[in-house]
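re: ur question from yesterday

yeah so i grabbed the chain u mentioned. its 484 aa long if i counted rite. heres the sequnce exactly as i have it in my notes:
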Amino acid sequence: MPGGTAEGGWKGDFTLLWVSSAFAEFAYSTSLIVLPLIVLALTGSPSQAGIIGFVDAAAMLLAGLPGGAVADRFDRRTVMLWCQAALVAVFGSLALLLWANAVSLPALIGLALVNGVATALTTAAGDAMIPSLVAADRLSDAVAMNAARTYAGQLAGTSAGGFLLAVKNAFPFAVGCLAHLAGLVLLLFLKRQPPARPSGDRVEAGGRGVLDGVRWIARHPFLRVGLACATATNFFFGVIYFVVIASAQTSGMNTGLIGLMASLLGVGGLLGALAAPPLQRLLSGARPVYVVLWAFAVLTVGIAVLPGSWTPGVLLGAVAFAAPTANAFFTTQQLALTPDSHRGRVVSAVAVASGCGGAIAPLAGGIVLDLAGRSAGLLGCAAVMTVIALLTTMSPALRDVPDPVMAEPGEDPRPGSQAEPDPGPGRAPRNEQESDAYADSAPETESAPECAYRPVCEAAPVPGSVQGPEQRQEAPPEPAPDKV
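ran it thru and got these structure tokens back, copy pasting raw so excuse formatting
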């Protein structure tokens, strides 16, 4: 079984990666809240302050797909080390400039640019190496722990950023520099993490190599449907969040209370990430996805019609509590279905798609609020989410997904017996649409194509949760129809 320890846990390398990434999350969240405030103090222009957030988000999105190709082509630990070193340098330089009162808008934009690009690269490399650091039956728990790390880093970083900025404007970046330095030192103790490349796989630096993650997702019904759900949910959550915050401000609610109400979102997400492992054992198969979508639709109606200033924050926090369990299910399946040689590109493609939905959500939220108003706009969002939840619940791609179990690189995809099993999702193509993608693969009588895109094998799929209960020794089920 790849990765893990003798006890099937995640001691050692995964812990080093987790703690190093937690420092990076803290520093990133600190800069995210501080940079616009410093630009506003420096220029007095809200529009120029908004440029910082746009540059950071645009850099992450534009670097996403190339970053995945880099993570699949080079040693992933080395990629993260170079990114952390670059962030140590720019955070330290900006702290010195602020201390000397010599900072300028181009310097702040430069930090936002490096911050976005480096974050995209480290996310792709770090997420892609997770399956090699933990036992397969603990992969889902590791994904949930990463989600908890992200929420904790955001809460700690935003809180510390405001406090440090009040003391001295250079302090947030000095502390961020130290946090990235600590993360870099921890990565030095991590073993080298070169991506596994099956025979014949040549990762290209050009467009085809960059887009291979998109092509891989397009071939798998589960990944296509799951990514569509994640993108739609991120988009509508961003729209609803903007409508709630903007309408609270226009109604005269105190900004401090608005901040506390919004913080319930982070608290719900952190608690949900910690609760995700046991919840996945209770909710088998794709039920976490169904629960989140239906709960989101129902709770949005509650936000629209229920009274109380704190009601929207509590209900948004409830949605955030349920979300990590669904995210852990989808991410675990995605990592297990994708061969190690393509994980960086698939991770990046998912991040870019879902990130685009969140990026345009504030603009859409403003339009909804202007045209329909708060209550009608929220009810309209709830109606669309209900349709999405219904279509997702009826989708065979999610309903019939098995539990993939990762195989070692180069391992024979067939189970121990010589009898050929029925192929599961992501195995040999069984229809015309997928056959084109595997034109150079072995004949259809083989149990899996012998090509660069040979997927991870499902040794003993379990219809149900993916976090690692005992596997049943059954032949994989017939694949679901290739449609939503």
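noticed a couple things. The mean pLDDT is 74. also Residues 402 and 463 are 5 Å apart (CA to CA).
anyway ttyl
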